[in-house]
Amino acid sequence: MNTIVTKFGGSSLADADQFKKVKNIILSNSNRRVVVPSAPGKRHSKDFKVTDLLYLCQSHIESSIPLDDVFDLIANRYKKIVSKLDLSLDIGSYLDKIKKDIENGASKGYAASRGEYLNGIILANYLDFDFIDAKDVIFFNKYGSIDRDLTYTSLRKALENGRKAVIPGFYGSDIDGNIVTFSRGGSDITGALVSASINADLYENWTDVSGFLMTDPRIVKNPKQINKITYRELRELSYMGASVLHEESVFPVRDAGIPINIKNTNIPEDPGTLIVKYMEPDFNNPIKGIAGKKDFTVISIEKAMMNSELGFCRKVLSILEQNCVSYENMPSGIDSVCVVISDSQLMNKTEIIVDEIKRTCNPDSILVHPNMALIATVGNGMSSNKGIAAKIFTSLSESNVNIRMIDQGSSEINILIGIENDDFEKGINSIYNAFN
Ligand code: ASP
Questions:
Q1: pTM of the full predicted structure?
Q2: Using the 8-state DSSP alphabet, how is residue 332 labeled?
Q3: Domain boundary assignment for the chain
Q4: How is domain 4-276 classified at the CATH fold level?
Q5: 89-109, pLDDT tens digit by residue?
Q6: Residue of 181, 194, 177, 203 whose CA lies nearest to 114
Q7: Ligand 1 surroundings by CB, under 6 angstroms
Q8: Is the dihedral of CA 313, 315, 318, 322 positive or negative?
Q9: Does domain 289-434 have CATH number 3.40.50.150?
């Protein structure tokens, strides 16, 4: 029997109408037997996410402020969903208990997780599936990361014999039974763990977009959709800012070789984007996607005979480490090395770092160049395929964009280019147009 694990994001379960769409999707394929819901998301741009409201309730209590007004917003949303779906479910008693627990000082994790918990109970009731509380099957170790062995064994056991079940996303429990959540957006991780534990044939991740686009639609008008992409290509693009999935959710399914299909709850007939472990490179369409980020600073260090000085780069990197700054990239020349650092990492530490490098490494010169943007052009069809870099650089030069840095990893699936922040949008448009 084929098994599909389906995870639905917050916008897919934001109100009763969305629940109806979700039910139609699940019941249209009997292989969809395990469902992982998020908490209700925004119904419109000015709306609140239930998870945010739950965090707010908990912080009200921490500051000794009554939570009634905020909690009412949450309670009314769930009550409306249950009544519009015509369910004979006493959601009020669940809400009362949660409110009391938070008032009595329940943890942040407990409070935040209740959005998924309640949506799970409602969805299980609506689908006539079993409800499995995530606290009984998703386990965190004492360091706060997932105990994969225990989690997989528990999930496998709970889902034996083709059981149809709803398991809320976003949380689990620690060894003492306390509720622990993943970082925000973490229901994606729950879906991935469930898929990997039972070796599902497919992990469907339903959201409000039809998968990944070749580039950011705020920068390029109507970019093409990506139909199929490898985990590796996706990792490169997500790292550079293209995001639909929680970053950590890819690893469990990638390790198990399970494909992920990103689908749109509002347009279920759209094929979406399929993420696979391996696919033949398409040499006719070598570029899968273009992503990038602004606001990097380059620290450029020169020293004669640097290449023969043992430990030079180690010293530079340990200065960054001591200052809790992680770097993005480190292209090097014969007697020079550059460290590319995101401004969000660097904050106001530039001067301290530069001084320490001067003191410890004794360079001939050290220069700081701010305002750089990075653009990654990614595709497994570019490896061993001549002329791709030429096409990228020609397009940038024709658009009058100056290239400040070039880096291509040995995997040959990503060409990284550093340009001025001000040229960022122009640069992405010109690369996109060169290949489309
Ligand atoms: N509801 C949680 C959040 O808003 C988790 C999730 O949606 O995946 O971050």
A1: 0.89
A2: B
A3: 4-276, 289-434
A4: Carbamate kinase (3.40.1160)
A5: 999 999 999 999 999 999 999
A6: 181
A7: 10, 38-39, 49, 51, 115, 169-170, 184-187
A8: negative
A9: no
